[in-house]
Amino acid sequence: MSVTLEHYILLGTLLFLIGVTGFLIRKNIFLMFMSVELMMNGVNICFVAFARYFGDMAGQAFVLFVMTVAAAEAAVGLAIILTLYRNRDTLNADEFNLMKG
Amino acid sequence: MTEIALQIPNLKAIWPEMIVLVTGLTVLTIDFSLPRLNKGFLAFLGALGLAVAGIVSYQTLLLDVPTEIVGLTADPYAQFFKIIFSVAGVMIMGISVRFLEREQYHYGEYYALVLFAILGQMIMASGTSLLVIYVGLELMAIALYILAGLFKRTPRSNEASVKYFLLGSFSSGLFLYGIAMTYGLTGSLDLSTIAGAIDGRGASGLLLLALIMMATGFAFKVAAAPFHFWSPDVYEGAPTSVTAFMSVGPKAAAFAALIRVFTVAFGPVRIEWTTLFIVLSIATMVTGNFIALRQTNIKRMLAYSSIGHAGYLMIGLVVGGEIGTASVLLYLLIYAFMNIGAFGVVILLNRVGGVGDQIDDFAGLAKTSQASAFVMLVFMFSLAGIPPTAGFAGKFYIFMGAVQAGYAWLAVIGVLNSAVSAYYYLRVIVKMYMTDATTEPTLNVSTAMSAILFVAVVAVFVIGIFPEFFLSLAKSSVASLL
User: Fold this and answer.
1) What share of chain A is helix, strand, coil (3-state, %, to 5)?
2) pLDDT reported for residue B5
3) Residue A30 sits in which domain range?
4) Residue A101: pLDDT band by 50, 70, 90 thresholds?
5) What is the mean pLDDT of residues B451-468?
6) Do A43 and B177 lie within an 8 Å CB cutoff?
7) Best residue in B70, B135, B153, B165 to probe A by mutation, most A CBs within 10 Å?
8) What are the angstrom distances between the C-alpha of A47 and each of A20, A61, B137, B181, B192?
9) Tens of pLDDT along B54-112?
10) Does ipTM top 0.85?
């Protein structure tokens, strides 16, 4: 059996969906953040597969940008999570309910 | 030795972006090399850079020779949005200084981050490739995540920042998947090439999936229902000056990219996405305006009001064409003045640590400070859409466009929502003029703040009384897009 474009897209989509599900059901902020990273990597696989299929470099370039953005986002995100943890001593999303209405 | 062919791209296309970038870097450099310098100077420098960027954009708009550089265009449509971002940025600089001093979070990075966020917004508005739009979006979003958590010792600010960060990155993940599927379908990231590839092929299931994913990503950014739930918490918890910024800049930028992507790239399947946005528009208007009715916190009320306004703006998107798109541009310009102005008055009133954010704190303001009560009255009238303020003109053109395009029923829903919204705006006015003060408000007036509020009030009246000039400017701006 040969591996076709569909297999890669299926894999990417599956990873993306695992990320979405993880984001929606996890209660720990850290794990929610990791799920988002999983979503992005699922998309990256799709991009690379399409780029290879079309023989077009734009998709490959896009992946590099996504990875850079994800790194910047991780730096900022971890700093934010750390500040929150210092003030609140918890990472449970259900406990962050100071604001309601 | 081989000659390296050096091709200098046409940098004229990105003058405003370069000015903002250089200003941001200058502010950052000055801040760490001269730490004792008064931070107000950095705000002044930032405002100056943004003013220059705005003027350059205006001149390019009038010249109307679209110049392009890979993935970025300087068409009048982008220039109009750059003017809005610059105006909003200058106002934010003005209202921030005294507020941050008082809260003892007066860092130079604040101004640099605001400038970088505006740079991201400008890139979003002028991007003609999905890659450029995505990078602009993230540049803006990452700067805003930090800004929302600026008050790092305040748990509310932390919470706002984390919520904004998680939901923001989740939504850009969805947006990214939409881009990947569009790329997979068309083999291109360039908006007009995408349009060429999907033209005549009709809407396949995969295209609809890509459309829905991208629309969801944008809906998160403009805070449209049912993807609005983050915005009230974030608006309430973030520092008020940042809330003012978040309610205008990112919304305008997201609309700029949304309109460009959907009219240019997905123009051939317009019928398919129109229904989607009609549903989103109605849900957004109803959710925003009805939940705003029972808010007691002014920042939260303005958050729901801003959700409602996103609903009106989507009517303009649905209508499309010259009048529909132009009315969205005009409305966003007006919205920048009136919404940042309203947040300015909230800042004026509030005392350290979020005290003064309640609507009750406005009680009896007319007796203690006639001027600030009047200013708030003007902004509330304008947000409610009462003539002769600019808010009326903005809504008038959006609803008129809807009637002309055969969406009269949608315009009726909009007008009814607008009537509902008048109730909660007028409640603030009633509080100010007809009740007695419970506590003595301490106003924190500064020259910059007074100047900004004065300009905003004048702008609200000028645009309200002479809307034709601004509408014709918006109309000539959208011509390049259609």
Assistant:
1) 80, 0, 15
2) 66
3) 5-92
4) low
5) 94
6) yes
7) B165
8) 18, 9, 19, 9, 20
9) 999 998 888 877 777 878 888 899 999 999 999 999 999 999 998 888 888 888 899 99
10) yes
- The three state secondary structure string of B308-376 is HHHHHHHHHHHHCHHHHHHHHHHHHHHHHHHHHHHHHHHHHHCEHHHECCEHHHHCCHHHHCHHHHHHH
Task: Name the average pLDDT for chain B.
Answer: 90
| C-alpha separations of B473 from A88, B61, B339, B399, B477 in Å | 50, 9, 21, 19, 6
Enter the tokens of residue B124: 């979003």
Q: How long, in residues, is chain A?
A: 101
State the Cα–Cα distance between residues B324 and B18, nearest whole angstrom. 31
Shortest Cα distance from B156 to chain A (angstroms)? 7
Q: What's the whole-number mean pLDDT along residues B375-379?
A: 93
Give yes or no for a contact between B242 and B147, defined as CB atoms under 8 angstroms apart.
yes
* A21 domain-assigned: yes
CA angle A68, A69, A74 (to 5 degrees): 100
Residue from B339, B279, B290, B288 nearest B314 by CA: B279
Report residue A58 CA to chain centroid gap. Answer: 21
Contact present, B469 and B333 (Cβ < 8 Å): no
Cβ distance A87 to B153 less than 8 Å, yes or no, reads yes
Chain A residues lying within 8 Å of B166, measured CB to CB:
23, 29, 32-33, 36
Taking contacts as CB-CB distances below 8 angstroms, the residues of chain B near A98 are 155-156, 159, 237
Residue B356: per-residue pLDDT: 65
Whether B187 sits inside 8 A of A56 (CB atoms) is yes
Average pLDDT for B241-245: 94
- State the total domains in chain A: 1
What's the mean per-residue pLDDT of chain A?
90
Amino acid residing at A20: V
Domain ranges for chain B, please list them.
11-478
